[in-house]
Structure formats: structure tokens, C-alpha cells
Target: O-succinylhomoserine sulfhydrylase
Amino acid sequence: MAFDDERLAILQAAELETQAIRMGHHRTPEGEHSEPIFTTSSYVFDSAEAAAARFNGDQPGNVYSRYTNPTVRIFEERMAALEGADDAVATSSGMAAIMSTCMALLKQGDHVVCSSSVFGTTTVVFNKYLAKFGVDVTFVEPTDYEKWQSAVGENTRLLFLETPSNPLSEIVDIRRVADIAHAKDAYLVVDNCFCTPALQQPLSLGADVVVHSATKFLDGQGRCLGGVVVGSQDICNEVLGFIRSAGPTMSPFNAWVFIKGLETLKLRMDAHSRQALALAQWLQNQPGIEKVFYSGLPEHPQHALAARQQSGFGGVLALQVKGDKAAAWRFINATRLLSITANLGDVKTTIVHPATTTHGRLSDDQKARCGITDNLIRIAVGLENIEDIKQDLERGLAAV
Model:
């Protein structure tokens, strides 16, 4: 067995923390220790015949960086290993990952069943843009499995959900929805952004495809946009075929940033989970708070499912203040340490008003269906000292 083959076998048998640091890096003859950034748009071939063989797939190797790039490939191989998948395809953003999956797997006349509790822009893509191309979409309450079952028809091709949901941390039984999908030969696609493979691996629970916004916890420091689609070789080949033609490609530099982020993923996700649970417990006892949404709380309706399906509860929580939108805005505006931004998954704690930002393009009826009220605030808990986070939120509470 060659050294590279032996090393690959060792890594395939290794734990997640080790794979997140070392998987996918095939050293060049230069012998670099850190992964290199291949900032090249194209590649040079030995001959016209070799170029033709690369382009038609007869010869392995890089073709063009819209399609393949060695740095991006390291990230893809690492993500495939972490999610327990055959392969992965990187994209320019999380929404590009969702759109590329849909364009690769759906056609005119197909039907999609989607959870009503998903990221606002995901709803817009399904409801507005896919509909223009003849794809019908039905939205169902994420934890009502009878509605999932009844919504699936003969032309249903894909079921889509995120768990935990954004921003209310609703937990969907992945295995149960996968069984509903597979009974009709449909795919189940799971957005695993909130948990990452460090806390949840949907493919092991029956999902067919996992999508991520790498912009969030996979990066961990709010530096770059990116996404990734993870699944079987056949599915990834279809997605890659779309990306090769349409071009929503991840840049080599962004891929390198995400590679570096993955090295600390498990440590960070465990820390985010501890911080978020401590903050959720503290917020429950504060005056001015109407309700706290976090699956790590025993009072959460799907707490037992979350504990069984995940190895941690994640770093995002939501709360309702007593009052209206004005009260929520006063709470947010009174903070001084937290960052008022719609991003999440950062080492810096962020705070946002979903009804007017992340879910602002939804109609009032759509907001009502997915629980986005005017007094709702989302907090993505970072890694600052927890007492400093509490003190800053006390400023918000005083304003309410």
C-alpha cells in the first residue's frame, strides 16, 4: 500500500475531529504542511490530446476552476468525510447550494414539499422562483408528520427541511420524514446549517442530501460566503454538472478559509452549545422576556428528539420580549457589545430582528405560519465570556 493510500485509510477510520483537520490534503511535491491556495482560473495540459481527454472525462484532473480546483477539492473531500457521504460539491453561497440542488434534481412538473419553518430566503426561492419554472411547492408545519404524509403525491420529487429551524429551533424527526420521502421515491434534503456535522449527521438518519451555508459555523468567524452540497456520488455528479455549466462556484481563497474553519469546528460547536444553553436558562428567568426558544431547554416540545438526534443543541436561540416591534427594537438597540447583523455562526455574538431582516420578504401570513412575530429576536451566541454577554443583554432588558 502506498503512503497516500495508507494515510487515507487511517483518516477514513479516524474520529471527526481528526478528519476535520487532515482529510483531503494531498501534499504537492513542495511538501507543504498547510493546505495551499491554488489561485488559478485555468490549467495547462501536456498536449491537445490531453486537454481533450480532461474535458470529456476520459482522463482525471483539473479542467477549469469554475468546475474543479485543488483547494476547493480539499474542502469538498473534508466535508464529505465529516457528513459520512460519498462526495460533496462546494458552491458560492448557502443559497447557491440549495438552488444548485434544486436545478440538478427537479424539472418542470415536479412537486416539492417544504417545511414552513426555513430561512426566509429559502422560502422565497421555492415560492417565487422555482414556481416560475413549473415546480409546484407545498409548505407544511415542520413537526406535523400527517401533513408531510398527506402533502406527498405521485409527482413529489423532493422534500426539504432544516432542523433545528431558523430561528425557532423546531426539531424535525429526520428519520420519519426520510421514510415518508422514500416511500414515494422522493429525495429528502436537509439544511444542516445550525448543527453542522459536528453535532448532527442527517445522512446517517436517512436523508439523501445535506446542504450548508459554509458562511456560518463552518467558517466560524464571518469572513467568507460559501455553501456545500453533500450526498451520494450520483447526486453530487448531477449537482456538479449544473455548477460546471451555470457557474455558482466557490473561490479557492474562500475554500481555504473554510478549510481552516473546519479545523476547530468540533471545539467551537461544543462551546457554542454550552454558551447558548447557559444563556437560554438565564433568559428564562429575566423580567421582560415572554418566551425563550432553544431545544436544549427541557421545556422545548422536541427536546427529547433533539437529544436523541443531535450530540449538542447548537448556538442559536430566539426569544420574545414582552411588547411589540418597538420593544424588540429598543432591546436590540440598547446592546453595546453584541453585533446587530443577520449573520450567525460567528465567534462574535450576533442579534437580529427576524421579522424585518432574515424573514422580511415574507408576507404577514407566511410569517404567522412560521412563528415570526414582531416581538421575536434571534441571538446567535458567540464565544465571548458568558457574563459579558449577559451584561449586554441586561441593557436590552432595561430598555424594554
Summary: The mean pLDDT is 96. The two ends are 66 Å apart (CA to CA). The chain is about 40% helix and 15% strand. The chain has two domains: 3-262, 266-399.
